[in-house]
Amino acid sequence: QVQLVESGGGWVQPGGSLRLSCAANTTIFIKHGSAWYRQTPGKQRELVADISLRGTINYADAVKGRFTLSRARDMKTLYLQMNSLQLEDTGTYYCNTGPWVTTDRAYWGQGTQVTVSS
Fold first, then answer.
1. pLDDT tens track for 13-62
2. Closest Cα to residue 24, out of 96, 80, 100?
3. Left, alpha or beta for 10 (phi > 0: left; psi -120 to 50: alpha)?
4. Which of 18, 26, 64, 82 has fewest C-beta within 10 Å?
């Protein structure tokens, strides 16, 4: 059973930075593409960034130039470096990977909360 555990969330002032991590109990990231999503109460879940198996990375327009997705060399950890954070970046961030199941990949972490406020 694949387990994903996100960490690194917290409170930060606008303009600050956080680095999120998604640790897997297997080398799942070498087998499947992966993504970071975020969700805010009352809003739909939003794709933040994703990476294909070959390493092609795509970012949502709202985070381009500020966020960087990467994978650890051991292919068991996924990162999201978030710089120049804005109030609108507040939300719960989820790691997602695995084979596609309808519109989502199969495995999700529990989420980590990011709060940007002054």
1. 999 999 999 999 998 898 999 999 999 988 999 999 999 999 999 999 99
2. 96
3. left
4. 64
Q: Which amino acid is at 112?
A: T
> Looking at the predicted structure, is the pLDDT value of residue 104 above 90?
no
Residue with tokens 């997602």: 96
H or E stretch covering 116:
strand 112-116
Residue 61 gets the label, from left (phi > 0), alpha (psi -120 to 50) or beta, of alpha
Return the beta strands (E) in 40-89 as ranges. 46-51, 57-59, 67-71, 77-82
d(CA 45, CA 77): 22
